[in-house]
Write a structure and sequence with these properties.
With about 60 residues, the protein is an alpha+beta fold. It has 2 helices and 4 strands, in the order αββαββ. The chain has one domain. InterPro entries: HVO_2753-like, HVO_2753-like_euryarch, HVO_2753-like_ZBP.
């Protein structure tokens, strides 16, 4: 998958919106290291997220 395609498929793990071109956070899961993306709105509201790979949940 190319970098351009990867940007198009990134979505917030909390609400599911496409985060391409937004002020989103990208970080690694504290448990398994999988890449997680969260939109600014979900970060600001401290919405829970769950890692798709290992099930880790966080605020």
């Amino acid at each position: 998958m190319s970098t351009t395609d990867d940007r198009k498929t990134r979505s917030c793990v909390s609400c599911g919106i496409n985060i391409a071109g937004t002020n989103a956070a990208a970080f690694k899961c504290p448990d398994c290291g999988a890449q997680i993306y969260r939109c600014a709105k979900c970060r600001k509201q401290s919405n829970l997220y769950e890692c798709d790979d290992c099930g880790f949940t966080g605020p």
